[in-house]
Amino acid sequence: MYDGILNVYKEPGYTSFDVVAKLRGILHQKKIGHTGTLDPQAEGVLVICLGKATKLCDILPDHDKEYVADLLLGVTTDTEDMTGTVLKRSAVTVTEEEVSRALLSFLGSYEQIPPMYSAIKVNGRKLYELAREGTIVERQPRPVTIYELEMMNIQLPRVTFRIRCSRGTYIRSLCRDIGERLGCGGCMERLVRSRACGFQAADSLSLSDIEQFVQDGILEQRIHTIDSLYPEYPKLRIDSRWDKLVHNGNKFRREHIHTITEGFQKDSEIPYVLVYDSGNTFVGIYQYQLKTQEFVPYKVFLS
Fold it and tell me: pTM of the entire structure?
């Protein structure tokens, strides 16, 4: 069984679950998960967790993501992208300078109303299920943060921009909001996730790449180990007399440590550490508890 992280390039037309299902067939293992769903028409980085790494699906570092999006001005749809029904068409009379100002006005934090066609639940029902039934419900705005927003190309009515944003940001809804601010409406025409969890689209593997690597017996060379995702965490190696403590998933104290890398302080703002046994086998992520001065298991990966 494979254990670790795969940087997969999701092609348009596939759901994120489709990618997982295909990988289960290619790798011949069931324990596979993904982080950060991409819409079927979107493409780009889809971080896949294999085997023991599925424990990381909810705690992977670097939760801000980067996208390149194509915005089509003058068209409003019910899904906020080109897969939906066109609700309105408007003339686009804005200038490039006005578009640039509108984009930059969204830098920082703002309250974003999520789209009806989304997996957010209201009273136990997913919004997209209600939308398909013709029911529109009021959605509460959610705080999102736009860290970077750069216009890459403009050929009105189309605008291409790069965005780095917080988790939970809907790029479709941002396109809608930019269009509304310009007074002509707009929707997302294309979306590429260029970075997620520290992984770049340029380094992603297609499903066909992965299938070939499996056949050649070299896929493991492209799988990222679990501990490699946390280079900022200090590393601890246990004294051989106390290997049994961590092998059984128990907590331990400083006197049980053989070596510790620089960067760990008793009152460290980074309370997590990577723990290895005396043979330098990765055990898991532990959390230092200042009150008891103990290292407590957070995520253990050693079988």
Answer: 0.86
